[in-house]
Amino acid sequence: MKPQKIHILGIAGTFMGGIAQIAKAMGHIVTGSDKAIYPPMSTQLEQAGIAVDDDQSIAFLNQSPDSVVIGNAMSRGHTQVEATLNAQQVYTSGPQWLAENILKDRWVIAVAGTHGKTSTASMVAWILQYADLNPGFLIGGVPENFGVSARLGDSPFFVVEADEYDTAFFDKRSKFVHYHPRTCVLNNLEFDHADIFDSLADIQKQFHHLVRTVPGNGLIVMPDNQSALDEVIAKGCWTPVEKQGQEHADNAWHYELITDDGSAFSVFYQNEKLGDVRWQMSGLHSVSNALSAIAAAVHCGVPPKMAVESLSDFKGIRRRMTLVGEVNDIKIYDDFAHHPTAIATTLQGARKQLNNSKRSGRLIAVFEPRSNTMRMGIHKATLPKSFIDADAVYAFIDPEWNWQLAQEQFEMPVFVQHSYDDLLEKLTAELQPGDNVVIMSNGSFGGIHQKLLASLQN
Fold this sequence. Notes:
By secondary structure, the protein is an alpha/beta fold. The chain has 14 helices and 23 strands.
C-alpha cells in the first residue's frame, strides 16, 4: 500500500494519539495538531517521530494531505475545521478511519461500559500477549505491561476500548458502532456524558446499536448485576451471552475471593476451578473486569488456565492508583476516577488495601469534577456518598462552573478551593506523616501531583 499523508486534528487525546501511532506503524506520513499536549501522549508521539503543530495553524493544508482525521473534540467554528471544509479537503473521523483501515480485517475485541474500559481492554490485550498472539490494540490509557496506549500488532486480534461518546461533529453516532466486534465485553452502564445524552435510555439505545453489530458466531460478555445492561439485551440480541459474577448460579464464570480486597481470588468456569489470580490490583471492580477479560480471551482461543495464569503478571494501568511518590511517610497516588461510581470503587479498594497492609494513617481524597458531566453539576447530589471511605476530602471547584459542592452532605471534613495554588497550599499545610493521598481527575489537575511532592519535600 502506498504511504499516505495523514494529518490529525486533536492528536493529543489518547484515542487520536493512538490512531496516529497505528497509522505511523503502517508506514503512513503522519502529522497532527492540538492546543495542549502533555505526557503520556506527548512522550508517545515524540517517540513515534510524529510532529505536532499548534491547533490554530492551517499550514498542514499546504502539504496536500491525503486525508485529515478530525477528533470529536473539534467543532464547527474552529479555525482548522473551517479551513479543512473550505478547502474541500478529504476528511474522516478517528473511529471511521480505524474501522476502514484496521478493523475490517481483524478479529475485534471491543470493551464498552461506563467504567473499567481501559483496565479490562488492557487485561484482554495482556492475556493475548501472554499467549504469544501479539494483538494490536487501541486503549484510552497506558497499560504498564506495554508502555504504550496503541500498537498495530501482527495477529488477527485487535483490542479496542469502545467509547459511547459521539464520533465527530459530522457523525453524532457513538464511536463504538464503527467497530463491529466479534467479541464484545459490556462492563456496566450508568448515566454519563450529560453534554450529549439526555437520559440513561438514550445511552442504552446506543449500546443496543452496538449489540446489533455483534455477529451470531461472536460472544457478548457481561456481569450478572447490571440491570441497565439486561434491559439493553432485552431489546434484542442475536449473539450468545456469557455472564460472570461472584455467584455460580446461572453464570458461566464466577470468582471466589481469597482476600477481601480483591488482590487474590479464584476463577471458575462452569463450576470448574481454573486457578488463582494473585496480583497488584485491588477492588471488586477489578476482579469483575478480570473475569470479563478472561472470558473474552478464551473466546479468542486462549486456553482458560493460561488466561487465568497470565493475570498474576498484569501490572496495571498508569493513572489507576499509580504511586507517584512518597515524602515524609506521605504517599501520593494518581487515579483517573471522575464519575461518582468510579470514585467510590477506587476509594473502597484503597481502604481495603490500606487495612490489609496494616498501614496507619488517613485516606485523603483530592479531586476535581473536570468531566463535562461533572462541570454541569449533574452528579453533585451523588458525590457525597462516593467518598464514604475517605477520612477527608479536598476539592478544586472552578467558580466558572457556577455550582457549589454540598459540603454539609459529606460525612467527613471537606475543604474546597477555587484555584490549584490554594489547593496545593492547603494540602501542604495539612497533610501528616502516614497519610495516603489519592488524587482523582481525568485531566492533568494542573500538575498538582509533582507540585505536591516537591512542596512536601521542601
